[in-house]
Design goal:
Helix content: 25-40%
Order of helices and strands: HEEEEEEHHHEEEEEHEEEEEEEEEE
Radius of gyration: 53 Å
CATH topology of the largest domain: Helix Hairpins
Strand content: 25-35%
Largest sheet: 10 strands, antiparallel
CATH superfamily of the largest domain: Helix Hairpins
Number of helices: 5
Shape: rod-shaped
Number of domains: 5
Distance between the termini: 96 Å
CATH class of the largest domain: Mainly Alpha
């Protein structure tokens, strides 16, 4: 009897515990339903929140790309000394804008001025020698001597011709004829010698003229070199631009073989900008019939403070191959920089239009919320209640995103008022007006 009573008590305890657990589960379920119902009722009972919305409609939008960029000086010049000398004057301040041809340094001019004077004297002497050689005084004298010898030969021939018939008629002494014949032979020999002298003198005169002319050219070249060295002693700016710091001071020795430049000049107008465009964007710009040819594209420069540079860039060149390591193509453009606002080495972003997107659904970037890698928006559903939508974004179009999935034409997307809106909350929508830039 005692065993049966214990078994009955145990069964009652189990039945009581089971009933208690069921009662607890039922109570929790009722409480949860009641809480959810009360939350829904609470949300439904909230006053309608004012929100601004955009009505999503298909449209054509330009797709822009932004790329990290850096300014640089394409034709920067190192200023070096072309002659040796001590610096007497420095005519610029660091950071000063200079023009091409403007003097920067003046070296000691005296040694080079002396070389110019000496070279001028040598040129004058050579010119005199050339003039004297061209007068051919020795040749004229030799020719005069030849004429005199020829006259003597003619007279000796006349004497022989006159005495020959007289001697045959015994009208003159044979001795006189012999003497005349001897004088004729001597005269002919003298003429031959004078002719050889004339040829020798003519050759010598030509050589003297050529030698003097060559010496004149050499001395003129030395004069030009001396004049150039004198010019180089005043170091001038080869290009216009902004000059850097000086590495030499007044009194320092400048050498033409020095490895260190005296200073540098960077041209600032126009300023060059380089950036790299991805291979994919490059190919898309080629395939899109409404895409903009990079050679005629309109480039904008966004500075480090997010301000837009007021001048538009122009395409200059691109590298001849895609970098296989980064898959990018380097583009170089120039921007007018009349106020010298930009300096080489500054960072920014280049923006350019890549292509046109047809029938795109576009929403403002500020309407998108991101959580754990997922993008979502709040829309206005039936009865003006807020609804959450997960979206897939595509290209960026200015301050907007192109939506690839998650929205359809006619959807109303909440832009302003997102901080207070919850799914299911009543809203009072009104059109969104973008702020003026």
């Amino acid at each position: 009897m005692l065993v049966n009573r214990n078994r009955t008590a145990t069964a009652r305890e189990r039945l009581f515990k089971g009933a208690t657990a069921f009662t607890a589960i039922l109570a929790f379920t009722l409480l949860t339903v009641s809480c959810a119902k009360s939350n829904a009722e609470r949300v439904a009972a909230m006053p309608a929140l004012p929100v601004s919305v955009v009505n999503v409609q298909p449209q054509s939008v330009p797709i822009y790309g932004e790329y990290a960029a850096q300014t640089f000086a394409r034709d920067a010049a190192d200023i070096r000394g072309q002659v040796d000398g001590y610096v007497r004057k420095r005519l610029f301040q660091t950071g000063q804008d200079v023009k091409a041809g403007e003097p920067l340094y003046i070296l000691d001019l005296r040694p080079y001025q002396a070389e110019v004077q000496k070279a001028k004297g040598d040129v004058a002497q050579s010119e005199a020698n050339v003039d004297f050689a061209k007068r051919q005084v020795a040749l004229l004298q030799a020719q005069a001597d030849l004429a005199q010898a020829q006259a003597n030969e003619l007279k000796a021939q006349q004497d022989v011709d006159r005495l020959t018939p007289l001697v045959s008629q015994d009208a003159a002494a044979k001795q006189d004829l012999d003497n005349a014949v001897a004088e004729l032979k001597a005269a002919k020999a003298n003429v031959a010698a004078r002719q050889a002298n004339v040829e020798q003198t003519r050759l010598s005169t030509r050589i003297q003229i050529e030698t003097s002319a060559a010496q004149l050219e050499a001395n003129q070249a030395l004069l030009k070199t001396a004049q150039l060295n004198l010019e180089y002693a005043t170091v001038t700016a080869p290009i216009s631009g902004r000059v850097g710091d000086s590495t030499v001071q007044v009194g320092s020795l400048v050498t033409k073989n020095s490895a260190q430049p005296l200073t540098t000049i960077v041209p600032l107008d126009p300023i060059w900008v380089r950036f790299k465009i991805s291979e994919a964007d490059y190919l898309k710009s080629l395939k899109d019939p409404k895409g903009e040819d990079l050679r005629h594209a309109h480039f904008q420069l966004l500075l480090a403070d997010n301000s837009v540079f007021p001048y538009q860039g122009r395409f200059e060149n691109a590298t001849n191959e895609v970098d296989s390591k980064t898959g990018t193509l380097e583009i170089q453009v120039t921007f007018p920089n009349p106020k010298h606002t930009l300096l080489p080495g500054q960072f920014g972003r280049v923006r350019l239009r890549l292509r046109e997107r047809e029938n795109a659904l576009v929403i403002p970037q500020r309407a998108v919320e991101e959580l754990q890698g997922l993008q979502s928006v709040m829309t206005v559903g039936a009865g003006n209640h807020a609804e959450a939508r997960t979206v897939v974004l595509g290209d960026r179009a200015g301050d907007n995103w192109v939506v690839e999935q998650g929205l359809k034409s006619g959807d109303r997307v909440i832009v302003d008022g997102l901080m207070l809106v919850r799914p299911g909350a009543p809203v009072n929508p009104h059109p969104y007006t973008p702020a003026a830039n």
